[in-house]
Write a structure and sequence with these properties.
Length: 404
């Protein structure tokens, strides 16, 4: 019955919106009071997000990290989490059996040596401008995501959602790259977990993002996002709204990565979100390998409706978009993919999903749908082992540009 279980979507897409303004409409009297309202709302959110730190850590990248009492982190301002009891580790981490001997600090910049004190967790400080940017950004992506998929823009691929099978997580190793992109552009390498009908789509997205609006520079950073209604009223990127519960004392959203040196040396990182089999929260972990990955924190099950149990759909790929310009940014490492030299291409390997008992399962090549960019000169995608039931390796990316 393998064919009836087609629900992996190798997802490779480019969307360039030029018509949808990312700014607030300012239109006469009503909008002035609207913007005042927005301002008050943003101030309120800032107070929720920026708790009094126990310790402040400044890191070289210029980020300010607040170490917040783990029980006072923003997540617990979410009414849905009023009765939530914090969990310090997932019920079990797939592959946890081996010792954690390999240090992540070689790949992850950020706190590196200095961790937050015991009982506190690191949270990248959110400024007012960050929130305004994030809001605009969400507006934009919401238009895309409200449709469950990316709409039929001339530069987008439509993704067919096939419901019917349950997935309890997704994982892959992703290569790490620096990209130079403009301020209103963003580019990701990521995994999507989705469930629900279009207007109430629940999703968790995670991976590596280049986004000057959210992060102040275009370097490769860890990101995660969630929503329970297509970003209409719930959800956000990273820690920009109450939702994600941070547990790890050293690694957080916004962490920088060491980048591959083109043609010389390739770096990659293992990323995973899995639903803890007993507590049913969605845990993010990261490591050099599956065996050594560390839990970062989790999105509690209370946040979700359709994702409260499982995902109906898992996607892997890249997404590049510009908020206002007509050209789109590079994806992956900025070069078209190839399968001969993995220091010269962006790739994912060991792409797997997690089943109900938390085991990693290989994707079956025969049940994957591949969605390529409609402009292969801008972005493309290749599979290294196109037949059979092995670990799937995918090379992807491209320079972007004016793509139609
Ligand atoms: C982990 O390390 C300890 C001590 O170094 C050792 O006794 C134990 O067997 C190791 N466990 C595994 C699963 O390798
Ligand atoms: C969904 O897509 C259609 C076109 O495919 C578009 O007209 C509609 O506005 C989109 N929905 C949202 C919320 O943007
Ligand atoms: C999950 O996968 C493991 C390993 O392949 C398998 O033994 C187990 O039966 C699977 N569990 C379910 C619920 O499918």
């Amino acid at each position: 019955m393998k064919n009836s279980q087609n629900s992996f979507i190798l997802y490779f897409i480019l969307v360039s919106f030029t018509v949808i303004s990312a700014r607030y409409y300012v239109d006469g009297k009503r909008s002035i009071s609207k913007s005042e309202e927005d301002d008050i709302e943003i101030e309120r959110q800032l107070r929720v997000l920026n708790k009094k730190p126990v310790k402040i850590i400044m890191i070289k990248s210029g980020d300010i990290i607040d170490c917040i009492d783990i029980y006072k982190q923003p997540a617990f301002d979410n009414p849905l989490l009023k009765k939530h009891k914090i969990r310090i580790s997932p019920d079990s981490i797939p592959g946890e059996l081996t010792n954690k001997t390999i240090s992540l600090s070689s790949l992850i910049g950020g706190l590196q040596k200095e961790r937050c004190p015991s009982g506190t967790v690191p949270i990248r400080r959110t400024t007012k401008q960050d929130l305004v940017n994030a809001k605009n950004f969400i507006k934009k992506t919401r238009i895309i995501q409200a449709n469950n998929t990316y709409p039929n823009a001339p530069t987008a691929n439509q993704v067919k959602i096939i419901e019917g099978k349950q997935y309890f997580g997704g994982t892959a190793h992703m290569s790490l790259h620096d990209l130079t992109i403009y301020r209103d552009e963003f580019s990701t390498s990521q995994i999507w977990l989705l469930n629900g009908p279009q207007e109430q789509i629940n999703n968790i997205e995670f991976g590596i993002m280049h986004d000057p609006l959210l992060f102040g520079d275009s370097r490769a950073r860890l990101f995660g996002s969630w929503t329970a209604d297509g970003h209409q009223t719930t959800g956000c990127y990273n820690m920009m709204c109450p939702g994600f519960v941070q547990i790890n004392r050293g690694i957080m959203f916004g962490n920088l990565f060491q980048s591959t040196i083109y043609g010389k040396v390739s770096y990659d990182i293992h990323l995973m979100v899995h639903r803890a089999p007993i507590s049913k929260d969605w845990w993010l972990s990261i490591g050099l390998t599956a065996e050594t990955s560390e839990p970062i924190g989790y999105w509690p099950k209370e946040l979700f409706t359709h994702l409260a149990n499982s995902a109906s759909n898992v996607r892997y790929g890249g997404f590049a978009s510009a908020l206002t310009r007509s050209s789109t940014p590079p994806m992956g490492n900025g070069y078209l993919p190839q399968l001969t030299d993995f220091t010269k291409t962006a790739f994912m390997f060991k792409m797997k999903y997690l089943n109900e008992t938390g085991h990693m399962v290989n994707l079956d090549r025969r049940s994957m749908q591949i969605h390529r960019s409609t402009s292969p000169e801008c972005y493309d995608l290749m599979l290294a082992n196109p037949l059979g039931d092995f670990d799937i390796t995918m090379a992807y990316g491209g320079p972007g540009g004016v793509c139609t």
